[in-house]
Amino acid sequence: MIEKGALLAMFYLPPVEYFIQLNTHKTNILIEKEEHFPKQTYRNRADIYSPDGKLSLVVPVVKGSKNHTKIKDVKISDDFKWQRLHWMSLQACYRRSAYFEYYEDDLVPFYKKKFDYLFDYNEQLLQFILKAIKMPLALNYTKSYELEYPELADYRNSITPKKESAIEQKPYFQVFEERNGFMKNLSIVDLLFNQGPQTINYL
């Protein structure tokens, strides 16, 4: 039997579950590039652990990026200084973590340089993270939008902030866990900043 691959959307600083699936299906990964942009998903949102609990970082997109815009054509809106806000949030939430300083210099450019398209931005961030966690992967991209891929496990819409992840996740140390306990399936950066080089073993 041929081992199934996985079909995933391109997310912003994706949650841990996303990387568990990447690691599970690593020989055959397909990334959706032709779908229409759905709102309120991880495509432009990442959840991190703040002193007050879960904090969502949202990349604003140009108005008109509704359901009829292809994901690869969705433009980032620079109406307000969202990059500065995200970077200050990441610093405030993770400065005390064991490995934040280790990755800080490599991440700064993503919050200083202007990026036009959401997909390109997410893709470059994903490549950085794969390198940081030492998970070499060949990513392939869809050439057209298909409703179903019978030969692949389809995670395009099942990894979502709208419902709790069903994936079993063993706890790891989190900076503010003494306040709110362990929070599962946060952005990969939560795991990376807290576990550093051990991230790949955790996955």
Tag the structure with descriptive keywords:
alpha/beta, 7 helices, globular, 203 residues, single chain
Descriptive report:
The protein is of the alpha/beta class. It has one domain (5-202). It contains 7 helices and 6 strands. A 4-stranded parallel beta sheet has the order 5-2-1-6, covered by helices on one side. Strands 3-4 form a two-stranded antiparallel ribbon. The mean pLDDT is 94.
Topology:
Blueprint: E1 5-8, H1 16-24, E2 29-31, E3 45-50, E4 53-58, H2 82-94, H3 100-107, H4 118-132, E5 139-141, E6 152-154, H5 177-180, H6 188-195, H7 199-202
Parallel strand pairs: 1-2, 1-6, 2-5
Antiparallel strand pairs: 3-4
- What structural class should be given to the helix and strand makeup? alpha/beta
User: Beta fraction of the residues?
Assistant: 5-15%
Low-confidence stretches: none
Number of domains: 1
How many distinct beta strands?
6
**Biggest sheet descriptor:** 4 strands, parallel
Task: Give me the oligomer status.
Answer: single chain
Radius of gyration: 16 Å
Fraction of residues in helix: 25-40%
Shape: globular
Q: What is the string of SSEs from the N terminus onward? A: EHEEEHHHEEHHH
Taking the alpha carbons of the first and last residues, their distance comes to: 25 Å
Count of alpha/pi helices: 7
Strand order of the largest sheet: 5-2-1-6
Mean pLDDT: 94
